[in-house]
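Many introductory courses stop at the sequence. We go one step further.
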Amino acid sequence: MASLPASTHAAAFAPPPVWWRPPTAPSRRVYPTTTGAAVGVHRRRAAPVMAAASPSAPPPTPASSSAPPAAGGDADAYTPTNDIRPELRRLAAYTPILPHTVVAASLGIPEESIIKLDANENPYGASAAATAALATSPYLHVYPDPESRDLRAALAAYTGVDASHILVGAGADELIDLLFRLLVTPGAGDTVINFPPTFGMYQFDADVNGAEVISLGRGGGGRRQCGRGDVDFRVPIEAAEEVFARAAAGECARPKMVFVASPNNPDGSLLSDADLERLLALPTLVVLDEAYMEFSGVNRAGLVPRHPNLVVLRTFSKWAGLAGLRVGYGLFPLSLMEHLWKCKQPYNVSVAAQAAATAALESVSVLGGQVAAMVAQRERFFVEARALPWLTPYPSAANYVLCRVAEGEGRTARGVKEALFAQGILVRYYTSPGLSDCIRISMGTPEQMDKVFAALAKL
């Protein structure tokens, strides 16, 4: 693009004169419908019109607010925290895992020596095709395609489901949040069903969006420590059916969504076909999270066009090695798609993420080999972990294994996690109910897993 003349450049970026007023836009744009009603598409209020202040003048006094005054302050004082939604004031902050770069710095060791097995990522990294797509993308200066057309076409070929059912998000996490925005009215008593222990974002997004969560513990997992008694992480289908029976009798609200992961995180168990059919028979939206589908070989994407109440979520973070780019996708009923398009951010998936994910789908054979290698390490780990008398691994269909630590002789799950951490081996430890005596270990390369086995054998 040709450069502007110096005078033009200076004028283009000069501050507006003191008499300038921003144009007042209508508060929303309206379009006629077939019934003659007006549909609001943008509901942003127009900016208030204020004169530009002199640099030496005091800041303007804020307008009066209906919010309560700040505690102990002037009755006319305003603070934005007065307007925070009450349920968000009470919300506990999400605690993410530490970046491996931070861990390496804290331990005083090189970043490349960290064995990162705490987030179920692909230890082999992005495919060469994805890396090349990032290096050669010519349009990083241009906004991305808001409909991710090329990527959705590639996903249609990969899943066997028409692109009209597919929505791409900044990770599957964004799509979970979109479903809450679409179906839940904050603070209205809307409920969803969750089966803990499981992926924490279902509870997190429910809290953020003002939904009430009905938690039905897996196999007793919400009431006992993992691996004790009859805990097997099976989804309590009967308990879910009972909730809907009570709702039909007017005893409680009908849950708007049921979230279920298969394979489940953190234990790797699968939802059976029979249990899925029972869930789909309920009058609710079933959100089936298949983030680890490639490691299990159990693929339910083809069921979406045949079931108007089924959503299947997927991600490129695990099998495809693109966790750092945040790209996932969902397969949705067509009846929801038209509304999801309206409420998603227009440019939610970056040019880089779209290019790399599309290239990854052209490298399925390469990535499939990496998936097979991780599955082989999973089977190897299960056998070797069982040889340790204090460690009980659970069968898994994902790229990780959950293990119960037999606490005693000064050994605890937290202590095992910290001992491995001191050696630069990062694994996941939980403080949540039902998991406080467990660690979860993602599968690494054979060389990484050799070091893990050697470290565990010395504990």
